[in-house]
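Minutes, project check-in
Item: structure for the 236-residue chain
Input as provided by the requester:
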Amino acid sequence: MTTDQDDSRQVVVRLDDVHKEYGEAKALDGMSLTVHAGDAVAVMGPSGCGKSTLLNMVAGLDRPASGTVQVHGQDLGKLNETGLALFRRRHIGMIFQFFNLIDDLPALDNVALAAQLTGTPARQARRRALELLDELGVADRRDVYPAALSGGERQRVAVARALMNRPALLLADEPTGALDSRSGEQVMDLLIDLNQIGQTLLIVTHDQHLATRCADRLVEMADGHVVRESSLEPAP
């Protein structure tokens, strides 16, 4: 495990002894994790081990019963719900298994909305959205609604939306889980490219292939805490 003593890079995520219960079930049981700027970390483990709860904690969508969650230098426990929402929009990008695009908005507006919600003027937001769609190879689909996009195209639009506000951290929850193998490989290539230009990634997945291709570090969870960490060889 990398420590602050042997790594001078900025800490983007720090969980310290985080506990969370839902009724009698312990979702997180003393979870601690550090992610540095530029890391690509894959989190794996059996269903019910706490992976989704971990992502929700880092995203500020849930709060721990005890312990601390810090992201980009901010203790999330010190923010109210409004503050959490604003922090999330400005500093965290999220990619979901089933895309979570707004059905009645075309691709361009789905992406631009992320910036408009932080107060960016519509024209400026749409200009950056188009630049991102172009970089991701789907600018020609900017006026198409999600239902008419392929799975791979929808995930690329979702990635563009996640990157809209230049987040310090990109969270990915099974980002290839709803895609065919070809589209999945394309999204993996995209995640690798993003990390190579400095984007910090925290990926939750059941897919060992995705983890070994896209991450430089594997965190294995069981029963709500980390049981093993290992370094991964960079993708060829």
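Outcome recorded: The chain has a mean pLDDT of 92.
No further action items on this chain.
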